[in-house]
Specification:
seven-stranded parallel sheet, 9 strands, 12 helices, binds NADP nicotinamide-adenine-dinucleotide phosphate
Length: 345
């Protein structure tokens, strides 16, 4: 019986693919243009950005600032947040406040939503952009419980902030911008926990979108490699500590092009204002989804061969790292800003 269902479902899928693709593409195009025409103006609106002290979140703050939005900037490093707030004010934000908080702590989340509403009386956009990146083989982890902050920050931090913001976003007919990752679909060694946390984020928001209906928009962003502290090599190691390891960065990211954070931020805020449901940035990373969907075994084999060194050897002996050592290739794939291992305090 299973075989019959399988054959019927397969034929229906192939048929739908050929018949529906043109209609679906047309619908998507028309939908895109209608959203483009009715793009939201965020001037004077209130935007809360979690993960605003560096990288993508910092540049998203600058992009909203240029469009005249009032900003609530959240992360743990207070000094960096104040610096970002000052720059945002100089770029055109009418107000920008720094609220230091750890989003893996529900009490911090309640406090920062409270401070936002007390100060501005409304919330229009929530941008969830906080994240940490564990980078190690699962079996090398010394104490598996030391890695649980990955889910606490990358997943639960998003869930807490979303849960607490929904009443205010319903009232303002606002939006949630969820920074996930193309890693949510792309398997890679040393990234199992990070990728799982990002897949959880995508799945959470896809289901939540149905619960919220049209009152609150959700843009799921799946960035490829982007200029930030992560692409400078800031990772969580096998002991659960944050370290900067640029050799490991090179072995994992190789010659995959790293997009400038400002370019990515502009596309993210444009996508949110248009009401995009999904946004892959840069756009080419979306094509990797088709490779994974249609040729999963091949992707897995290639990824293993390219990213892993011989058993027992250091990751920097992997072909991925050696390729980056070919003269000229580093300059083409990485912006010079990620060459420095200096991370903000
Ligand atoms: N860069 C990429 O190539 C790339 C690709 C795909 C997806 N992403 C995703 O993009 C998001 C932004 O990362 P990024 O690339 O811009 O890296 P980043 O420069 O390291 O920024 C991460 C941000 O998250 C904040 N953060 C970390 N833990 C936090 C916590 N417990 N509470 C509050 N804030 C916290 C950090 O601030 P504090 O340390 O001051 O708290 C920082 O502002 C992440 O979700 C990341 O997974 C990045």
């Amino acid at each position: 019986m299973d075989l019959v269902f399988y054959l019927v479902a397969s034929m229906a899928t192939v048929g739908a693919f050929f018949f529906l693709t043109p209609l679906y593409t047309l619908f998507k195009l028309l939908f895109y243009f209608s959203r483009y025409i009715s793009k939201e103006d965020v001037a004077g609106k209130v935007v809360l950005i979690v993960g605003a002290s560096s990288g993508i979140g910092e540049h998203v703050a600058y992009e909203y600032a240029r469009r005249g939005a009032c900003l609530v900037l959240v992360a743990r490093r207070e000094k960096s947040l104040h610096e970002v707030a000052e720059t945002a004010l100089s770029l055109g934000a009418p107000e920008a406040i720094a609220v230091p908080a750890d989003v893996s702590n529900i009490d911090d989340c309640k406090r920062l939503i409270g401070e936002t509403i007390n100060r501005f009386r409304q919330l229009n956009h929530l941008v969830n952009c906080a994240g940490v990146t564990p980078m190690c083989m699962l079996e090398d982890i010394t104490d598996i419980t030391s890695i649980t902050p990955v889910m606490d920050i990358n997943f639960w931090g998003y869930v807490y902030m979303t849960y607490l913001s929904i009443p205010h976003l319903r009232w303002s007919k606002g939006k949630i911008v969820a920074i996930a990752s193309s890693a949510s679909w792309m398997p890679a060694p040393r990234m199992s926990l990070y990728n799982a946390s990002k897949a959880a984020v995508v799945s959470f928001y896809e289901s939540l979108r149905m619960e919220l209906g049209s009152e609150v928009g959700i843009t799921i962003v799946t960035p490829g490699l982007t200029e930030s502290e992560i692409t400078q090599g800031k990772f969580m190691n096998k002991d659960g500590e944050m370290v900067t390891d640029q050799d490991l960065r090179d072995a994992e990211m190789s010659i995959v092009p790293i997009e400038m954070a400002a370019t990515s931020a502009q596309a993210i805020v444009d996508g949110a204002c248009r009401g995009d449901i999904y946004l892959a940035e840069p756009r080419w990373v979306q094509t990797t989804l088709y490779w994974v969907a249609f040729f999963p075994e091949m992707v897995e084999w290639l990824s293993k061969w390219f990213l892993l060194a011989e058993p027992g050897a250091s990751p920097i002996d992997a072909p991925a790292k050696k390729l980056l050592d070919v003269p000229g290739l580093r300059r083409v794939s990485q912006p010079s800003s990620v060459w420095s291992s200096e991370i903000k305090k």
